[in-house]
């Protein structure tokens, strides 16, 4: 008999041994149910909606369509995704697309259980309070004070303190540092979710600025530490004033 909180699992993996190992692990956990196994991401793409999985264990390196390509085209919202890969560098691409966890091959059973636990924790938090997800992710980052941006064909590490402000450019974001800028394919919403909310704030629907880099404010205009003048959107004016009042000497 299935438990009330059973997670329906699908495996998309073209390596036979890795596939068999994941199947074995799923069957060892009473609260998991294997509803489908695929060695082809294209085939899985068409059949996944009918299986209604809660969790997808997704390989990265597959013929025809890679795991990252699969995530890029699969409709949102999608099930919780756990990447399986032999290359930890692939985890960065996956987290940009909202995966829950990644498992480094060869996958151990205790690490598999940890991933399942993270899925349950995430599902529980999102059900009770969606806004708490951001707080949990911030907590998990701990001492990490940087983010990776994809520029051209490389990933570039940028420390939060280096970011002065960022502005939207259509489907791209232009990130201004003290001495240069970089352009990355990203939405402002995703950037806002990535940056620490106690250090950055949105001052316009198309602009985010780091609080410590605000040098002055006059009317609807902010001046940054690097001299740029930024316009505050009408809908953000009160929030900006409230944030700056916290450090007002009076």
Q: How would you portray this structure in words?
A:
The protein is an alpha/beta fold and 250 residues long. It folds into 2 domains: 7-138, Response regulator (Rossmann fold); 146-245, OB fold (Dihydrolipoamide Acetyltransferase, E2P). The protein is 34% helix and 32% strand. The chain has helices at residues 16-28, 41-51, 67-73, 90-96, 109-128, 132-141, 188-194, 237-245, and strands at residues 7-12, 32-38, 55-59, 80-85, 101-104, 146-151, 154-159, 163-169, 172-177, 181-185, 200-204, 207-210, 214-218, 221-224, 229-231. A 5-stranded parallel sheet has the order 2-1-3-4-5, with helices on both faces. A 5-stranded antiparallel sheet has the order 10-9-8-12-11. A 3-stranded antiparallel sheet has the order 13-14-15, with no helix packed on it. It is elongated and about 65 Å long. The relative contact order is 0.08.
Basic shape: elongated
CA distance, first residue to last residue: 66 Å
Given as residue ranges, the uncertain stretches (5+ residues, pLDDT < 50) are: 127-143
Helix content: 25-40%
H-E string: EHEHEHEHEHHEEEEEHEEEEEH
- Which CATH class of the largest domain applies here? Alpha Beta
Helices, by number, come to 8
